Fold this sequence. Notes:
By secondary structure, this protein is α/β, with parallel strands linked by helices. It has helices spanning about 20-35, 50-60, 65-70, 80-90, 110-130, 145-150, and strands spanning about 10-15, 40-45, 70-75, 95-100, 135-140, 155. It has one domain (about 10-155): Rossmann fold (3-Layer(aba) Sandwich), CATH 3.40.50.300.
Amino acid sequence: MNAILPFTDPHLYLLVAPRSQTSRLVTALLSHMALKQSVHVLDGGNSFDVHALARALRSQTVTLESALCQVHVARVFTCVQASVRLAQVPTQPTPLVVLDLLATFADENVAWRERARLLELCLADLRRLAQAAQVLVTARPGTAFLPRLKAAADVTWEPEE
Length: 161
């Protein structure tokens, strides 16, 4: 897994891929990490699949429940919620995986300018958190604000299908 996603140093990592591919990669990464340490997941695209994670962990350990307890999940549905939640995360050495952050910025009921402002707040918090731990953000290709997210990332992966 680390050959595909070398996710070991405190940086802001970005994975740009279709949801199905992202799901497979993130499940493998989370199962690997949960065997060693705590990891936080912020699900912005309602895409976290605990059943897939449990299956992956079950194939690696008999202590499934303790490994699952290492993964702490919070869901956000709007860009406002994403901004507030990221601001609340303390700077600590616990890795953070943010699933489909830009999906929360697709709400056309929020003015474009306000979404852009909230994205900048989110990016500032992601950079702050990446000073102490690995931070992985996933996004789908062609998503609005993707160029801004790419510019903020230290490392960007865009794997082939």
